[in-house]
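tool_call: predict_structure(chain=1)
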Amino acid sequence: MNQYDVAIIGSGPGGYVAAIRCAQLGMKTAIIEKYATLGGTCLNVGCIPSKALLDSSHHYEDAVKHFEEHGIEIPGEVKVNLEQMIARKQGVVDQTTKGIEFLMDKNKIDVYHGVGSFKDATHVKIAKEDGEETIEAKNIIIATGSKPASLPFIEIDKERIITSTEALKLKEIPKHMIVIGGGVIGLELGQVYKRLGAEVTVVEYMDRIIPGMDGALSKELTKVMKKQKVKFNLSHKVKSVERKGDEVIVKADDKKGEEVTLTGDYCLVSVGRKPYTDGLNAEAAGVKLDDRGRVEVNDHLQTNVSNIYAIGDVVKGAMLAHKAEEEGTMVAELLAGQKPHIDYNLIPGVVYTWPEVAAVGKTEEQLKEEGIEYKSGQFPMRALGRARASMDIDGFVKILADKKTDEVLGIHMIGARCADLIAEGVTAMEFRASAEDISRMSHAHPTFAEAVKEAALAATDDRALHV
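tool_result:
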């Protein structure tokens, strides 16, 4: 029987990063993955493939709508080759997952393909295609991630009533895609198919989209996506989804309690994700799960069984790849006797629509709820020379700072390249910068980043320069 210092169940961003860090710190490490490729949801059917399709569809939309204004003329009709678009996406996925294989090899991490389940607190059984194998490990990290959630009355047939997994490999552009859920996944994939020519209707139970983010971001993204001709049915409670041949009929009650019927040829169910522990046999090791199926952990991500840890989507907190990576690194360093920490308030969130939406820290709603006195500074993207030059004028940057100390408490932005710009906000807040600190830093001109400086100026005695 092979013996290890650490065995990790699951090879998503949390699992594979934990494995690399454990190996770097001198531990003999194994990783167990049920699928043929490494990388988990993120690399195979999540973050990476969805961004590939978002980029491809963005290029197409630019060619159809904006090239002429830029002085670029294309003879003949611009057409979508969906098969090639999906093939390119798969090529990006294949290249990325092979990169993880290379990193496992480089760091001398043993990879086992099969379903890993607990035999007891120190032994993991691996059910492989060619039989079964058991390994022993002093410490075990559960990194089994999550899977798409649904509603109890919806039957996902993976053909017309689909999840994000199927939406990444459709063989045709929908005529009318009904998206249930106005969160990150639904909006991103809805925008992909809207750009390619589908009619898209988003049905959301809450009174706004991206409900976990600052209200101003939600309002602005709704406005922009409505301009892009995406339809929104907010405050709608879906009560049935039925397929009749190639048609999908969605029935929902609006806020007045009146029934609304929507008919489309595809229905994307994107109501969030749920922890994945199927087949883990956690009870054999004595590991406790909470009432939502998540693995219970303490502040050190340690379960009730002292040598077993859990990270990523399978534990409480935001279901984000980069949050899982931080947790994987933290557990590895704890096992090595170090004293790492994570500030969960400084884990940024991003929506990869165009314009992109990004945020870190407290929302305005949270500050009001917590009774914290704050000031706000906001700057519109359309006031930037760089935004006008690239025709990306939608959005703004908003900075929230403590009224007395001027410490930055939250940064919320929507606009071009905000997924990258938010790193400046995370860095500033990690070092407990004041709005004035940011306002006094030189930002290259012309850039989108100037909006961050100007928002900081606006939060500092309302002295933005370019509005």
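agent: DSSP finds 14 helices and 22 strands in the chain. Proceeding to next step.
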